[in-house]
């Protein structure tokens, strides 16, 4: 069973604020605001409401933490990375319903974006934006094609994985150059890839993992609608991998590209 933390946080903030507000109005009308006689429930509500409200505003409109559970974004993001996601890069959205109320910006090719998985919106996925609305995007022979142009890859040698990602040791490490972003990808030549071409619908985005042969992405289930966007991944604030000596101090504070 999936636990919706955002909905629970919103409900808790509303309930504590309602209890504290109703009690304050009731006592104010009676001319009795003696805090020493407040019921225990009201004391708890008054104590927790500002904390919950702060966390709700921070998490819903500014930054939200996520943990990377899989290898689909290697070598850019490793298993055990804890990241911060900017919630206002692509517009201000209401919590729970995820409706955009203020338009600030749009995803760009190369952005690493967190979104709600279209086939199961209770799950959050993280992938790289490869193609924008209206683009014709294809994937053939381990290469991305955008509007008929083959995206170049420069070989960097063989990848050496660490910790839980050590199974990717020996994969080809390639430097890929999208029109607006350069980044590294992993390719496994011996593993067959799904191939094809499609036009990205308006209001949708084509997403792919940097670990090209180990990523469940738009090649398999289609594009991501704009209303499923959560935010832009911007920084690694912690990395913990029990199979790699615990904390990797070199990754702390790293910006995400």
Short description:
This protein is an alpha+beta fold and 257 residues long. The chain has two domains: 5-61; 68-255, Umud Fragment, subunit A (Ribbon), CATH 2.10.109.
Blueprint of the fold:
Blueprint: H1 5-30, H2 40-62, E1 63-67, E2 81-86, E3 92-93, E4 100-102, E5 112-116, E6 124-131, E7 136-140, E8 143-146, E9 149-150, E10 153-158, E11 172-177, E12 182-187, E13 196-199, E14 204-208, H3 218-221, E15 224-225, E16 229-241, E17 246-247, E18 254-255
Helix pairs in contact: 1-2
Determine the N-to-C terminus distance. 33 Å
Estimate the helix proportion, in percent. 10-25%
Most strands sheet: 9 strands, antiparallel
* CATH architecture identity of the largest domain: Ribbon
CATH class division of the largest domain: Mainly Beta
Instruction: List the helices and strands in order.
Output: HHEEEEEEEEEEEEEEHEEEE
Bin the strand percentage: 25-35%
User: Residue-averaged pLDDT, rounded?
Assistant: 91
Give the CATH topology of the largest domain: Umud Fragment, subunit A
Fourth-tier CATH superfamily name of the largest domain: Umud Fragment, subunit A
Radius of gyration: 23 Å
Integer tally of domains = 2
Flag low-confidence runs: none
Tally the helices: 3
Structure characteristics:
Umud Fragment, subunit A, single chain, alpha+beta, 3 helices, 257 residues
Report what the structure shows.
With 257 residues, the chain is of the alpha+beta class. It folds into 2 domains: 5-61; 68-255, Umud Fragment, subunit A (Ribbon). It is 21% helix and 33% strand. The strands form 4 sheets. Strands 1, 2, 5, 6, 14, 15, 16, 17 and 18 form a 9-stranded antiparallel sheet that branches. A 4-stranded antiparallel sheet has the order 9-8-7-13, with no helix packed on it. It has a 3-stranded antiparallel sheet with strand order 10-11-12, with no helix packed on it. The longest helix is centred in the first third of the chain and has 26 residues, at 5-30. It starts with a helix and ends with a strand.
């Amino acid at each position: 069973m999936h636990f919706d933390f955002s909905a629970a946080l919103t409900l808790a903030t509303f309930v504590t604020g309602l209890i504290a507000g109703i009690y304050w109005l009731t006592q104010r009308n009676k001319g009795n605001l003696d805090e020493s006689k407040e019921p225990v429930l009201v004391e708890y509500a008054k104590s927790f409401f500002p904390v919950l409200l702060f966390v709700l505003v921070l998490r819903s409109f500014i930054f939200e933490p996520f943990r990377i559970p899989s290898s689909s974004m290697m070598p850019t993001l490793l298993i055990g990375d804890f990241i911060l996601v900017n919630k206002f890069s692509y517009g201000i959205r209401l919590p729970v319903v995820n409706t955009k109320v203020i338009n600030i910006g749009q995803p760009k090719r190369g952005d690493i974006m967190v979104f709600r998985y279209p086939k199961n919106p209770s799950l959050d996925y993280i992938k790289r934006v490869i193609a924008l609305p209206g683009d014709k995007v294809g994937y053939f022979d381990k290469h991305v094609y955008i509007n008929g142009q083959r995206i170049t890859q420069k070989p960097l040698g063989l990848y050496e994985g660490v910790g839980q990602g050590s199974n990717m040791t020996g994969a080809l490490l390639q430097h890929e150059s999208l029109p607006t972003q350069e980044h590294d990808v992993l390719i496994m030549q011996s593993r067959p890839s799904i191939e094809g071409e499609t036009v990205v619908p308006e209001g949708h985005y084509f997403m792919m993992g940097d670990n090209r042969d180990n990523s469940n992405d738009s090649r398999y289930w289609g594009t991501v609608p704009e209303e499923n966007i959560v935010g832009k991944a911007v920084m690694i604030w912690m990395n913990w991998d029990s199979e790699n000596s615990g904390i990797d101090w070199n990754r702390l504070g790293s910006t995400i590209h």
